Amino acid sequence: MSDTPTIAEAGALFRARKLSPVELLQHCMNQIERWDGELNSFLHISRERALRDARAAERRILGGDALGPLDGIPIAHKDVIDTKGIPTTGHSRWLENNIPARDAEVVSQLDAAGSVLLGKLATYEFAMGGPSDDLPWPFPRNPWDVSRFAGGSSSGSGVAVAAGLVLGATGTDTGGSVRVPSAFCGVVGLKPTFGAISNAGLLPLAYSMDHIGPMAWTVHDCALLFDGMRGRGSAPDFTPANGDLKGCRIGVIRHFFEEDTKVSPDQISAINAAVGVFRDLGAVVEDVQLSSLLEYHACGALILCTEASAVHHDRIKSHPEKFGERMRALLTIGSLFTGVDYVQAMRRRNELCREMAAMFAQYDVLITVGAAGEPPLLAEVPYWTTLSTPTYTIPFNVTGNPAMTVCCGFGSGGMPLGMQIIGPPDGESALFKIGHAYEQAADRRKRPLQGPAI
Amino acid sequence: MKKSVDQTEFQTLLDHAGLHVLPGDEADFRAAYRWVEQVRARIGKPHPDTLPAAQFTVTRP
B61 to chain A nearest CA, in Å? Predict the structure, then answer.
C-alpha cells in the first residue's frame, strides 16, 4: 500500500490483519503533518480522541467483534456539525470558543459505527461567506494546485479527502456545498434526499435547503459513509445487477450547461465522454428539457439568502462587524427580500418540484455538470460568488432530490472536472449503482499528493 | 431595470430591515441590490393555483 487506502481497502486490510486502525490513524496524522500546513483543511485536530477511538476499534477487530465497514476508519467533520467536547466554530468569530455539550445526530451515528474522529474541517463562515482572509482561520487550498479555488463551503472536507488526510468526511450542502468542492477537488460527494440524514446538531444556514452528506474518494466509500450516517450499519446496495447498465434510462440536462450558463469546452467534452461510457455499459441516454438553470438559481438563491438572514438576523443587526466581509454582505442583501418575495419563491419552488418529479417517470437518473469547469485561480473567484454565478447544483437543493458528484476527468490545466448524477427522492442506491459502474469503467485517478508507504 | 438604488432609497430599505451598513461597504451593497431585483423579476408570478410549499401541519392532541 503506497498511498492512503479507500475505506473499503482499509476494511479489507484490517480483516486480513495487514493493517491496524492505530497504524492507519498514524498514517493520516503523518499526512496532516506533511501537507496541511499548506492546505489549511483542518481547524482542529482531536488527537487524543482519535487515538482512543482507534485503540478501541483495534481491540474490537482483533477480538472478532468489528462493528462494520466503518470500524477504525479515520474521518473528520465539517465545522458546522456539533461535536461534544470538541470546538465547533462555524469558521466564525461568533463561535470562536464554542464547545458543544452534545454530538450532532450524524456524529453519534458515525461514532456508533466505530469511526475514528480525527477533527474538524474548515468551511466558509457559517457555510456561506466565501473564501475569506478576514476570519480567525485561513481558507483551504486545492491540493491539485494550491493557487486554485477548492470550492465551498465544504472545502476543508474536499481538500482533506482528496489529499488523503482522512478517508472520509462529512459536508453540508445548501446550494452545492458538498458537490462543488467535490468537483473541484476530484472526490465523490453526495447530497442525499432532503431529510434522509438528520440535521439535528447542525448549525443551520437555510432550514429548507440544508443537507448533510458524505464525501469520500470512491462511490463505494460514499455509500458506506451514507449508510453509517443513517445508522443502518449494513452493506449498502451499490453494485449494478450484472455489472452493466442495460435497461437503465439516463436523461442529460444539457441546456443547463450548453445554453443557460455555458461551461468550458473541456467540461462539455468530459460529459460527452461520460455519456459514451454509459452507452457502452448498455444505458439509454437522451437529452431532457427542464426550466432554465437561471430560474432554479433565482428561486434557490432567494430562499437560501432569506432563510440565512433569518437564522443570523439578531447577529447582523447587533454586531455586523463580527462577521467577515463576505458573510456580512450576503446577510445584508438577504435581509432586503420581503415576505412576499419569499412566499412567491416557495410557490415557484412547488412548480419546479413537480417538473423535476415528472422526469423520473421517464428516467432512472439525470446527469449534468458538477461545476463550470476546472477550479478558477483564487484571485479570480467573484466577490459575490453565491449571487452572481448560478451553480449547477442548487436546482436539487430547491427540489430536494439526491445528487452525487463524481470526477469525470481532467481539464487541459490538469485540474479535476465533475459530473452530477441526480435521482428521484430516496433514490440514493440508483446513484451509487450508476456512479460505481461509471467509476469502474472510466479511467482511474490517483490522489494529488502521494503519501509515504504504509 | 434600475442599475442600482440611490443612497436615500437604500437607507430606507436598510432601516426597514433594521440594519446598518459599515463604513465603506455601502457602494458594494447598492450595486448588489440590482441582483435582488433581478431575482424577484425572474421568479415572477407563479401560476395562481400554485400554493406555497410550506411544511405547515395541524398539531393534533
Answer: 24
Say if residues A243 and A262 touch (Cβ distance below 8 Å).
no
Taking contacts as CB-CB distances below 8 angstroms, the residues of chain A near B1 are none
Catalytic one among A20, A41, A78, A433? A78
All structural domains of chain A, each given as residue ranges with its CATH number in brackets, are 7-296+326-442 (3.90.1300.10)
Count the neighbouring beta carbons within 10 Å of the beta carbon of residue A361.
7
The reply to whether the predicted model has a pTM over 0.90 is yes
What is the tens place of the pLDDT at every residue in A72-110? 999 999 999 999 999 999 999 999 999 999 999 999 999
Interface test with B, best of A348, A383, A387 (most B CBs within 10 A): A348
Task: Spell out the residues 6+ positions from residue A384 whose beta carbon is closer than 8 angstroms to its own.
Answer: A329, B32, B35
Q: Which residue has the cell 489529499?
A: A163
Amino acid letter, A427: G
Q: Which residues pair with A212 in a beta bridge?
A: A172
Task: Supply the ipTM of this predicted assembly.
Answer: 0.80
CB contact under 8 A, B29 and A337: no
CA dist A196 and A191 (Å) reads 10
In angstroms, what separates the C-alpha of B21 from chain A's closest C-alpha? 8
Q: How far apart are CA A52 and CA A64, in angstroms?
A: 19
Given the residues A153, A157, A182, A264, the one annotated as active site: A153
Q: How far apart are CA B25 and CA B22, in angstroms?
A: 6
Note the pLDDT tens digit of each residue in A427-444.
Answer: 999 999 999 999 999 987
E-strand ranges in A317-399 read 365-369
Classify each residue of A427-445 as buried b or exposed e, where b means 16 or more C-beta atoms within 10 Å of its C-beta: bbebbbbbbbbbbbbbeee
| Contacts (Cβ under 8 Å, ≥6 apart) of A218 | A6, A7, A8, A188, A436, A439
With CB atoms and an 8 Å threshold, state whether A347 touches B33. Answer: no
Contact with chain B for residue A389, Cβ under 8 A = no
Contacts of A301 in chain B (CB under 8 A): 39
Check if A177 is active-site: yes
Which residues, at least 6 apart from A364, have a Cβ–Cβ distance to it below 8 Å?
A: A248, A249, A250, A423, A430, A434
DSSP 3-state of A61: helix
In angstroms, the CA A50 to CA A349 distance is 43
Q: Which residues contact A361 (CB under 8 A, 6 or more apart)?
A: none
